[in-house]
Amino acid sequence: MVEMYGQGVAYRAEAPPCTLKVTFDVSNGIDAERAAMLLALTRTREEEEAAKSVLSQVGDLKFAVTEIGGMSDVLRSKIAPQVVGASLSQGVIRKCSTDTHALLHAVIEAERGLLMDAPMSGSMSMKIAVVRQGIWIVVAIFGHSAFHVLTNHRRAGLGVMHVLKMGSMD
Fold it and tell me: From 3.40.1510.10, 3.90.1150.100, 3.40.50.720, 3.40.50.300, which CATH number describes the 32-162 domain?
């Protein structure tokens, strides 16, 4: 049921089934932040694979997607290792300290947006996307959290970090 208010009169009508289709023009490329959020927001494997198919044809993007769920106090220690593992296995990062260090900083930044106000023993389910574009690594996290079934809501976090060249202080 949808309630609309206009000119001081309330209207009630059945909500029609609707579909929202969003089109991103990526013919001139896409930035890593948007690509990561797009992947993290996919709901199904089919949507994820379709997004990956398009993104693989655009620019110099490398990406990995993983999912994780459980109690928030336990998940806090599992997110980073799972993201590093997925990023290594999908070729997003190299097995070296500079890549891993940058990825961990991006994970920590994304977690801040997601976990800062999350209850310590709340249930969480998250999709995590990692996108690399040149020296930039982006981590996007989107998911659900709830302390109780009646308090379920969505959360998102985004972290960005650059990879330093070994020995560089820039």
Answer: 3.40.1510.10
Q: Please, what's the b/e burial string for 84-100 (b: 16 or more CB within 10 A of its CB; e: otherwise)?
A: bebbbeeebbeeeebbb
Compute how many other C-beta atoms are within 10 angstroms of the C-beta atom of residue 78: 12
Residue 41's identity, in one-letter code, is L
In this prediction the pTM is: 0.81
How far the first Cα of the chain sits from its last, in Å, is 56
8 A C-beta contact, residue 157 and residue 141: yes
Degrees to nearest 5, angle at CA 139 with 155 and 97: 140
Residue 29 token pair: 């490329």
Mean pLDDT of 114-129: 77
Q: How far apart are CA 17 and CA 68, in angstroms?
A: 31
Q: Which of 71, 164, 82, 94 is nearest to 129 (CA)?
A: 82
